[in-house]
Amino acid sequence: MGPLQEPKVAAPPVKKEKVVRYRECRKNHAARIGGYAVDGCMEFMAAGEEGTGAALKCAACGCHRSFHKREVEREAPCDCSSVTSPQC
Ligand SMILES: [Zn+2]
């Protein structure tokens, strides 16, 4: 009697693909002293893998993802026919 290995077929739930991008960091680092100063980070980069706590932290500036400007793109990532630049 050997170990019975049955293949696990995990069907991922069908979900609508929604592309969300996080742009510039808008955390005010000078709020404590009544000023306004951002760190200049222009795009959120996850510090860790998706699903971990580090994924919500920016690798570049160290701020939480919620400080970054959120942009939702619903269309295809690249549509060469309607971009303003001549080359894609
Ligand atoms: Zn930041």
UniProtKB/TrEMBL annotation:
PROSITE patterns: ZF_HD_DIMER. GO terms for cellular component: nucleus. It holds the Pfam family ZF-HD_dimer. One of its GO terms (biological process) is regulation of developmental process. Residues 22-71 form the ZF-HD dimerization-type domain. GO terms for molecular function: DNA-binding transcription factor activity; transcription cis-regulatory region binding; zinc ion binding. Keywords: Metal-binding, Zinc, Zinc-finger. Signal peptide: none annotated. InterPro entries: ZF_HD_homeobox_Cys/His_dimer. It comes from the Eukaryota. This is ZF-HD dimerization-type domain-containing protein. It comes from Spirodela intermedia.
